Amino acid sequence: MPISQSLFHISGVIPNLSVRAGHLPVRTESGIGALMPWADRLWFVSYVSSGPGSGVGTGLFSIDENFTLEKHPESVVGTYANRMIHSPSCQLIIGPYVIDSKGKVRTIRSIQEHRLTATMEHLEDPENKVYFLTMEGLLLEVDLNTFASKVLFDLNKELDLPKGSYPHYKGGYTAHSRVIVANNTYEETEFLRKRASGRLAEWDGDEWKIIEKDPFMEIVGRKNLGEPVFAIGWDKVSAILEVFINNKWIKYRLPQGSHALDHSWLTEWWRIREVETERYLMDCHGIFYELPIIVYNERCWGIRPICTHLRIIPDFCSWQGLLVLAGNQVTPIRDATLFAGQPQSGLWFGKTDDLWSWGKPKGWGGLWWDDPVTPDIPSVPFLMTGFDKKVVHICHNSDKTVEFMAEVDFLGDGTWKTYEIFSVPKDKYFHYEFPEGFSAHWIRFKADTQCNATVYLHYT
Questions:
Q1: Is residue 184 helix, strand or coil?
Q2: Sequence-ordered strand ranges (E) for 155-310
Q3: pLDDT for residue 2
Q4: Are 119 and 82 in contact (CB under 8 A)?
Q5: How does strand 239-245 pair with strand 229-234?
Q6: What 8-state DSSP symbol labels residue 82?
Q7: Can you name the CATH fold of 363-459?
Q8: What SS3 class is residue 303?
Q9: Which helix (H) or strand (E) holds 116?
Q10: N or C: which end of the chain has fewer CB within 10 A?
Q11: Rounded distance, CA 355 to CA 306, Å?
């Protein structure tokens, strides 16, 4: 039967391509952790919530050109969200599996018990070895010829994670002679600013350096066009974008699309992916963005929001001319809720341009949230372009009137111009509604007085 007649689909979802996990011995997750087109198929891994022994039915799957789903006999139950093409050997590494260009699958048994979240190029021997990052914070070295593995670091110790924090390492990437890793630990203790357990850190082969102590998720770069590296995370104030260009990190702030993601367990998993040739999408805190990766004049600019969405998207990619989004649909996770049934997840198939119809970009976020402000020192830039109606809310704790200067960069190239100065009396709250149709690429604020201030924007 022709494919068009045999496939039943609803709004881009093909139900018979969903994957499920079993009921016993415990109901868990069945999220789709990583996708990759390879060897004439679309490959993906599904995951349980807490590693081997916490569920059944997950594994390695592939879909052929006729949209036939197959679970590979090498499948093992585990928690995997890593994927990388190892260029020297022309092999796909996804989960603990190594797949050659003809589709032959081998399993690295020495690491299959770990919760694998990232695979990275080796600093000294990239022809033969790779690094794996585990959710618990181990950095492993694996020889792709012998499959022998060893632990290089316990990052909880190297990065000085506070006692009592729950490690939840996610992204990892190698570029510019350094390995960059992310830990997204964030609970109420972090929200209350009583502890800082998130990490963005880098290792140059000799020592570790902490870049940020906020939760970070994804790290992605490119080997040409200026070789930028992007890392996305968040804190109490907003989503965060860190960009590495010309041997330094530059920090930006982005709106949050939902407070439903403000916990390390609930992010699962923000991604940055090339979806058309040299065109990138970024999924960050419930908002999809177009992400330019060209470096001109030591700067990347032109970030543009596409849509606000509700879907949990552990990974996405292009395959057979389609945009494919992984899913992590409702699952019981050890019966934390008694209103979720059998663990299951599905894929969404559509066009890149379909995302523009998913929901108008909207969100909120700030420059400061009751933060100490030094006079005349500007805040980090906050994204403004691509959103509709805009309002800023301002207050402070000074015993006198504080003047807040709003500066805008309407070109996106770091050229700042004064937009307005807002005078906020002591013990008063102030808000300003930007004119209809007003937009600049970035906005930032300065205060003329030492104080604790809140500057928060809503885009609707």
A1: coil
A2: 169-175, 178-183, 199-203, 208-212, 216-221, 229-234, 239-245, 248-254, 271-276, 279-284, 287-291, 304-308
A3: 46
A4: yes
A5: antiparallel
A6: -
A7: Jelly Rolls (2.60.120)
A8: coil
A9: strand 116-121
A10: N
A11: 7
Nearest by Cα to 21 from 43, 42, 49: 49
pTM comes to 0.95
Contacting residues for 234 by C-beta, under 8 A, at least 6 apart: 186, 214, 215, 240, 256, 261, 262, 285
Structure tokens at 375: 């006079």
Which residues does 421 contact at the CB level (< 8 Å), separation at least 6? 403, 404, 405, 406
Q: Which of 148, 120, 153 is nearest to 137 (CA)?
A: 153
What are the Cα distances from residue 350, in Å, to 33, 51, 144, 238?
A: 19, 31, 35, 30
Among candidate residues 81, 162, 175, the one with its CA nearest the CA of residue 120 = 175
Reference 392, options 323, 458, 338; nearest CA is 458
Q: Which residues make beta-bridge pairs with 78?
A: none
H or E stretch including 190?
Answer: helix 188-191
Nearest to 170 by CA among 123, 228, 232: 232
Q: Is 68 strand, coil or helix? A: coil
Calpha distance 9→101 (Å, rounded): 30
Q: Over the stretch 320-362, which tens digit does the pLDDT of each residue have? A: 999 999 999 888 887 888 888 888 999 999 999 999 999 899 9
Q: Is residue 261 classed as helix, strand or coil in its secondary structure?
A: helix
SS3 state of residue 29: coil
Asked if 255 and 304 touch (Cβ cutoff 8 Å), the reply is no
Instruction: Enumerate residue ranges in the chain where pLDDT < 50.
Output: 1-2
CA distance 13 to 107: 30
CB 63 within 8 A of CB 17: yes
Mean pLDDT estimate for the chain: 94
Secondary-structure breakdown of the chain: helix, strand, coil percentages, each rounded to the nearest 5: 5, 45, 50
Could you state, in order of their start, the residue ranges of all structural domains in the chain? 159-313, 363-459
The two structure tokens encoding residue 186: 């964030």
For 241, 316, 411, 447, 453, the CA distances from 416, given in Å and listed in that order, are 19, 35, 9, 16, 21
Residue 52 has a pLDDT of 65
**How would you list the strands of the sheet with 129-134, edge to edge?**
116-121, 129-134, 138-143, 149-154
